[in-house]
Amino acid sequence: MKNKLNNFYNLTKPLKSLGLLITAVLSLTACETDDVSSDANLNLPNMTNNEVITVPFFVENGNGDMPSSSEDLLYEFRLLNPILNREGNHLTWEDFSTVSGIASVACMEGGFEVEMQLSGLIPNGVYTFWNVTFHDGGMDPSKEMLNIRGIGCIGASDGSENYFIASNDGTGYIKAFTQTPNSLSMIGDIKACPLSDEVEFHIVGAYHLDSKTWGADLGPDGTAVEQFGFIFKN
Asked: From which residue to which does the signal peptide run (predicted)?
């Protein structure tokens, strides 16, 4: 199992991975676009998604395997750093997989707005959020770099709007407008309305072990781990 994960990881490492391998297994649960107008004049799509996917492929237990028990202590996959909360306690798989919430995406003239209300986060943890786009056919682990076309921060391209610090009780809220069509901050691009113009579109939340953000980039290896995501399919 670990050899297979290593192969997947090596394939996606140039993209900082962003935990998207989970969609190879769970993309069938993705919501489909509803063409509901948020503006009668523009008649552009908007969508709400409450299916949070926990990303298991970029953490491992003490044996170097994917977590198999709720009590497994977790290490991030890149440099094997322990995943700790802000009090220095080593997190288990159960601690890691508690995120729930809702993500709303609304296409507008000149871009789209993402709004997320989340709970079950690591208390006082630093989180960043990322747009991910794909080539025709969507997520496909059989293709080079999983068929990913683009990765970049939500909101402003400098990363100044794609993060928050979770509250003491593990809740968080973020709202950001991404200008489109446009290049994304790490690689690739995004089309005018990801709900209608992209075959598949993901929003991924990353937890930062170093309690820092790194602007337009996820950060150095070993400093962040992809914890959860929302999947939107056209």
From this structure: 1-30
Give every CB contact of residue 145 below 8 A, 6+ residues apart in sequence: 11, 12, 14, 15
Answer yes or no: are the C-beta atoms of 134 and 174 closer than 8 Å. Answer: no
Report the 3 state secondary structure along 101-161. Answer: EEEEEEEECCEEEEEEEEECCCCCCEEEEEEEEECCCCCCCCCHHHHEEEEEECCCCCCCC
Among candidate residues 161, 160, 158, the one with its CA nearest the CA of residue 176: 161
- CB-side neighbour CA atoms (13 Å) of 98: 15
3-state SS class at 226: strand
pLDDT in tens, 36-58: 444 443 588 999 999 999 988 78
Q: Which of 133, 141, 131 is nearest to 162 (CA)?
A: 131
Q: Match 């490492």 to its residue by tokens.
A: 13
Closest-CA residue to 100 (of 232, 230, 231, 233):
230
Beta bridge partners of 183: 189
Q: Are 106 and 176 in contact (CB under 8 A)?
A: no
Per-residue pLDDT tens over the stretch 154-170: 999 999 999 999 999 99
